[in-house]
Amino acid sequence: MHDEFLCHVTAYGVCGGRRIGVPLGTYRAPTLALALWWLRDRASWMAERLDPRPEAEHFPPSSLVPVADTVPDVPAALRDWCGDVVRQGLVADELAAGRLVRIAVSDETTEYELLAESVDALRMQRTLPALVVPVA
Question: What is the reported pTM?
C-alpha cells in the first residue's frame, strides 16, 4: 500500500504558439482518502469557477451568458467525475497500486488536468536506474 501521494492541478493553453501550463494547485496528501478528497475538491472548485451560478449576487446582470450546445461542457464533466463513485473507486485502486492517475478534460481553448501519484512509486522510479547502471 502506498501511503503518501502528490496531487497536482494544471490548466494548459496555447500562448504565442506555445503550449503553456499554469499550475492551479499542489497537495502532498498523507493518505489515499485525502488524495481523493483533494482531487474531488479541486475538480469541484474548477467547475464552480468555470460555470458559476448565474443568480450569485457578485455578478452584474447579463454578465454571464450561455454557450452553444457544441461547446464541450468542462464544468459538467468535472462535476460528473466528482459524483461518480465507480470512477472514484477506480482512481483509488490505481493510486493504491502505485500507478499515476491523470484526469483531463478540455474545451476548445484549455485542457484541465488533475494528476496524482504515489510518493513511494516516485522514489522507487528514481532508484531503479541506479540499480541497473554498471559500476566501472
Answer: 0.80
